[in-house]
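Batch manifest line 394
LIGAND: 4'-deoxy-4'-aminopyridoxal-5'-phosphate
JOB: complex structure
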Amino acid sequence: MSTLSTRVTNMATSATLAMAAKARELRAEGKDIIGLSLGEPDFNTPDFIKDAAIQAVNDNYNSYTPVDGYAELKDAIITKFKRDNNLSYNTSQIVVSTGAKQSLANVALVSLNPGDEVILPCPYWVSYSDIVKIAEGVPVEVKTSIDTDFKMTPEQLEAAITPKTKMLWYSSPCNPSGSVYSKEELRALADVLAKYPDIIVVSDEIYEHINYVGGHASMAQFPDMYDRTVTVNGVSKAFAMTGWRVGYIGAPTTIARACNKMQGQITSGTNCIAQRAVITALEADPSVVQYMIDEFKSRRTLILNLLNDIPGFKCNEPDGAFYVFPDVTAFFGKTLNGVTINNASDFALYILEQANVATVTGDAFGNGNSIRISYAASVENIKEACARIKEAVS
Ligand code: PMP
Ligand code: GLU
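JOB STATUS: finished
ARTIFACT:
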């Protein structure tokens, strides 16, 4: 009998985390690696949030919390959903988890039976596919391309639906493409779903505030979608709190209660100090983080200019998040410095080894024509990384 379960042996390692670990390893060996692989803001958590955490420690918040989060935090989430998204949830519809990653895993584990299909417009965030598989669901990839700004059309959605379709999962702004679905585009997808009332939608809105075109749209805003949409969000990106591990959902009560039950057997409530700090973060006006968004926006312009100047790179213009997802197919079949590039993984490895720049292959996101570059990095590192890539591919 083998030591490990087929569940874990069949599972892919998170490519984003693996690349970040590889970059760390190479740095420890003395290499000057620029890490553009991990999607994490390079800002400090704002002081007013840190102060709330310190206060919570001093106020002796140290006990287990309610599994689904402190009542005050759930109230702050309800207020946030109303204020920012015009979504009305009550307290039994909110579940706080150890990052949006756990929120997504909870939803998969409580919704999917073996063989249930989950439609994933590609490119999708790296963990969607494996979370679905852990829950014994079947990911159904819908291919999009740079020519349609990496967005799924209503026709593509319709074509992907089968009697086994249980869910649709997407992120907007999208990790990794940065694409943002407008209200009209979401409505057009909802019009298709109107014919299939049992399909549940997971709308991952964790990059909501990192939006350069404005007008964030939630699927749950449509009355006919509200009762079957799970809205996922968290503080990792907007408040530079990746390590604090707080994410949450607003969901139909049946799903929220089931997530609470699932989480109660796996992790319990997330960290008490982090929860107290997040109350303060969510109660603040979103304009408190505008300086980060302004900075990401100017870095986006910078990196697009620099990458578009490299022959062979074809970039979409991301409307949100902090990634570019350039198509690098122009390099496939070419031999650079004695190394033959056959696919996006070869290309990502090539620039890691030749340019000491860590990115992530698009294969991990269900699109093997691109690589993902995170520009949540300093201007200096972005400039140096692009110069090195240019040199390595010229
Ligand atoms: N969804 C998307 C689209 C993401 O990029 C991430 C990245 N961290 C997550 C969910 C998970 O976020 P966290 O667990 O840090 O809240
Ligand atoms: N979501 C980030 C990324 O895509 C963090 C890493 C992860 O959780 O996978 O890079």
